[in-house]
Amino acid sequence: MAFYFYKREGSQLKRVVVKIGSSSLVDETGTLSSSKVDRLVTQLTALHQSHIQVILVTSGAVAAGVGALGWNRSTLTMPEKQAAAAVGQSVLIQHYQDSFAKQNIPVAQLLLTRSDIEDRKRFIHIRNTMEPLLHHGIIPIINENDTVAVEEIRFGDNDTLGALVSLVASADLYVMLSDIDGLYTANPRIDRNAKLLRRIRSITPELWEIAGDNGSKVGTGGMKTKLQAAQIATQSGIDVRIANSSHPHVLQQIITGNSIGTHFTADTPLRKKKPWIAYGTRAEGSVMVDTGAYTALTKGNSSLLLAGILSTKGNFLEGSVVTIQHNKRIIGKGIVHLSKRDIDQLLKKRQEGEPLPLLPEVIHRDQLVLLTTHKGSVSSCSTN
User: Fold this and answer.
1) In this predicted model, what pLDDT tens digit does every residue of 336-377 receive, in sequence order?
2) End-to-end CA distance of the chain
3) Which fold has domain 15-269?
4) What CATH code is assigned to 275-381?
């Protein structure tokens, strides 16, 4: 049986990223459940056999390790969680290997940190690794490398990891499976009148107000993280579904276009590597711009010139990604052609009235993306 997912253009689905949360993989004792793994693998196999390329982003390493070791997760320190992940990752991948082997499907394991995505060369290497795996019918199984990922290089949750993997892989659809049915108008656990939002065409400030931080006791992501992940994917031109993993044949229901869970429709994608600049990078500093530059950037599709820069923050080098700020508000991100030291020296010369040499753009418009923020999270991007 072939499955078809009809996007706005009426095209057939070719590549899907499925993220599964910890709560959907463990039993009531917090131990990894072979039956739940098998149920997920059976559904992924059906997609795979229908010539849909599948990438699995899985949580569960820490939970599997805690279960195997008999530890109490609520009392663990960060090093102990990393130790549990080191034990649990092998347990987790073995469950997947055994289950997929019953279907005669080979799998590959990729463990990533945020820094792997932030570095453009490593970003491309990840893509170049996944392409031959998918071409040869091998399912990549991806998780965060919890054993080495400290705060500075963490994704924070696998919802975000899955969205960035979708970006790397140029997926058509990103599915987040957990123990919730989708995005509601209120928290359904405490509000009986909460209604499920079936289709979302634009992520608005009102949606950010609706999204809370209530997550599963064995997971790290609440609805806010799922909304952030949906934003990354949709603004990269990827459709998104949030659905309950316990729903019978949930993936088949989604792929055939049934109204299940919450469906976020893709926006017009950012061009070239702008999705990576917007969402895959960590800013090394900031440049503050005046009103003239703000207008030129937001209204005129212009590059950022030295004339519009007021000051800098951080300690960045040429080729770094920085945020662009106007009146203390982040309006964009881009790759600078000059280091902080060079920009500061030129600003000093300008202030002292010295003539300046003819300079290239500080940030070329092809390496600049405009952002608007809501409570510190990117809520929309321009396609300029």
Assistant:
1) 999 999 999 999 998 898 887 777 799 999 899 998 654 434
2) 41
3) Carbamate kinase (3.40.1160)
4) 2.30.130.10
